[in-house]
Amino acid sequence: MKVLVDVGGCVASLNPAQRHVCGMDVEREVLKWALKNAFDHGGLADVKAVMSKVMGAHPELRSKAAEVKKIVVEKVEQVNSMSVEEQASLLAEIAPELTRKHEVREARRELPELPQAEEGRVVTRLPPEPSGYMHLGHALAGLINEYYARRYGGKLWLRFEDTNPRKVRPIYYESFRQGYRWLGIEWDFEKNNSDDMELFYHHAKTLLEKGLLYPCFCTAEEMHRQRQTMTACRDRETEPGRALELWDKAVSGGFREGEISFRLKGYVDSPNTALRDPVLFRIVDYPHPLKGRDYSLWPTYDFAAAVEDAVCGVTHVLRSSEFAFRDELQNLIRQHLGLKNPVYVEFARFEFKGTPTSKRVIRELIEKGFVGGWDDPRLSTIDAVRRRGIRPEAIREFTTTYAGVSYAKKEYDWSLLYSINRKFLDASSRRLFFVPEPVKLHLENLDAVVVEAPFHPTQNLGTRKIKVSKTVYVPGRDIKALKPGEIFRCKYLANIRISSVEDDVVYGEVVGREPSPGVRIVQWVPEEAVRVRVFRYGSLLRSDGSFNVEGVEVIDGLGEKSVKEVGYREVVQFERFGFCIRDSGENLEFIYCHD
Ligand SMILES: [Zn+2]
User: Fold this and answer.
1) What is the rounded distance in angstroms from the CA atom of residue 143 to the CA atom of residue 400?
2) What is the CATH number of domain 430-594?
3) Which of 161, 201, 292, 549 has its CA 20 to 30 A from that of 407?
4) What is the pTM of this model?
5) Can you identify the CATH homologous superfamily of domain 350-428?
6) Cα–ligand 1 centroid distance for 233 (angstroms)
């Protein structure tokens, strides 16, 4: 960018051959504003608008308006014949300060108010069951709960729903803690339901004494049949004294798994099946990861959650709609125990297209070798989305923008999350050259030069120096589209005319160093380049639900030397290719995030 000199007293003269005024390159100046105008308006510059920009910036040109206008018409025509991508690229090269689009401040979408919420008194909770890896659904639920706790100056619990020893694993507790931390969620208190077994027993006894909890010796099939036919278990009316005896025997290990359970005296003919005498305690003969074999009579999810929500003082239960039918049951349990009920608020269960969330389905895909593991970038676990370069800020913004609070189940397209993620990556990611399908280009008249190129067109992320002499590599796809005699530009380096195309090398000559419009701009690497491999993951499932066997594309190419300095898990933008995240500490392996 040339520095404009003070034009005081300068006589503007526009010799068509020269077109310089007082040291200012008018053509370049006009080109800059034409590109900017096109950039702001979907690729089409307008003569009038560009004219007024140029005149506004350079009043000294007013006396030469007619001549300037000719240049404007010429440049606007050139610019409008370029692709949007070429326009943006050229603008970034000649006037990076103009590439920041005029930001339209979106009205920040707020989630709706919580019913019956009092400032400073709202308590919400993150209630993960540590029986699988944390996924985006948990993230969304967690962010909504945190959002409301903070909005009302309240408190947030992290509470592990871990009363099924057969399902919980130590590794999953940590998966959730790490996942929530990564999202920037801070909780005020933490506990495990399994720490409160004595409390659960205490409340169970209250129900037994009231005749509201009864021992049942039915098999699972018998219970199922009773619920279907709305009939009662023969032991429903067991008198409390006998029920308490059996309870004590069950607590002290006097029954084997499956022999006895304790059921709530609910409503066998309720339209809500959850109320048809559900099991609240059952024997699980399996060591608990935190409690070992201290207990074998375990509360079910509904009983533990009902008690704990009251014990933790939870005022609002924000949970996805698939659990709605259980609210009534949990309220009934608390009502029997004289505990306070929270307010229930639903939000939609959300899923992403082509991405299974069922643990069973994912486990099967892993066992069959279709996916690499729980962090396979095609899955929606937190480990997977981190691997594919999704920023936690993007998930947060996605939640408040799209998730909202509503009933319907929603299936989102990944592109929505990508479009938010792009905003965060765009400002912070270094731009580097990666050349897929590299083709050797020999430039006889290029002397050894060092090109200094910025890592980012608008942000101050530093520069790198690229040493070049005579040979560069350019993308095969671009070079194959060009014929001898045609001109293209190696970004930051030079304009090149193709002389001839041989089998494994293309010959060209440098015809200028300054950027000019209407010329295809490509990325390149010098002879001293490094091998880079990019994995591009597609959708895991097809629209019919079957596994997409062509889900991973491996793209080999060459990168400029600076690629070696990209940190593990750092996201960079390979120019004209897309955002990629380094996936290995040792090898130059990247995962394609999105464009
Ligand atoms: Zn029974």
Assistant:
1) 9
2) 2.40.240.10
3) 161
4) 0.79
5) Glutamyl-trna Synthetase; Domain 2 (1.10.1160.10)
6) 4
